[in-house]
Amino acid sequence: MTAVNAAPVPIVERDASSPARRRPRAVRGSRPGWIVYATLGAVLLASVFPFYWSLLIGSGDSSTIRDANRSWIPGGNFFANAAAVIGDPAVNFWPALLNSIISSGLIAASVVFFSTLAGWAFAKLRFRGGPWLLVFVVGTMAVPMQLGVVPLYILFSELGWTGQLGAIIIPALTSAFGVFWMTQYLRQAVPDELIEAARVDGASSFRTFLTVGAPAARPAAAMLGLFTFVSAWNNFFWPFIVLDRQNPTLPVALSLLQSNYFVDYSIVLAGVLLSTIPLLLLFVFAGKQLVSGIMQGAVKG
Prior knowledge:
By secondary structure, the chain is mainly alpha-helical. The chain contains 13 helices and no strands. The longest helix is centred in the last third of the chain and has 34 residues. The protein is globular, with a radius of gyration of 29 Å.
């Protein structure tokens, strides 16, 4: 038999201008246009304007809010008005500020801890009735808080807790929204293969949560804690009912500035700005975690 020599295959060099080597062109419309920037600018101005208005009135005097020809440049009385708020004996500014920091911090830490644990159980543990229990937890979000005010007040009154911080901390230790938020996040953020690998290594369920679930949940937990802190800080309805004037939170204390016959809105809005400063500082220091939580929650994988 004669061997048949295969003819050599010619190597064809691809031209640099061929379609395979061309750089992909940007898709038309991938960059936001001027309409997007104009809309975002309008939203930004609408969000900043209440703060600027508070600064404008809070840095003036008692006649500034009624002056039709007022200047749109802040005045120089803000520090004097702030000193009047802090020095008002009816407000108890520093104890109220401390009460708001303690209650909001404890509520945020508790909600993050319990919501992360419950979210891990609903997302990664298989137990009988789990989906229906999650539906029940989410369904409690449809019940308004106002429906439970009277039973709660009767309960804490019988316990002798009215006027104490525990009356506003204990009912807010858990959050149905927090459980739902952490469940949805952990369901997508943690692969089941990592959990199986941890179990093969002999880790218990709680050990697996600490080594696998907790680090993965950090961005979403930071975002949940930030919004819970802000919500607890701004809460007025329930603390106004269950607390007294000797032991108020900051929103309840600032409401006493409007209890007189004549209301000086320059002092009232100066107090509002003082109560906003801690939240602004919190957003400045926790902004990186907030953006990270939003981006990781929006982009899967």
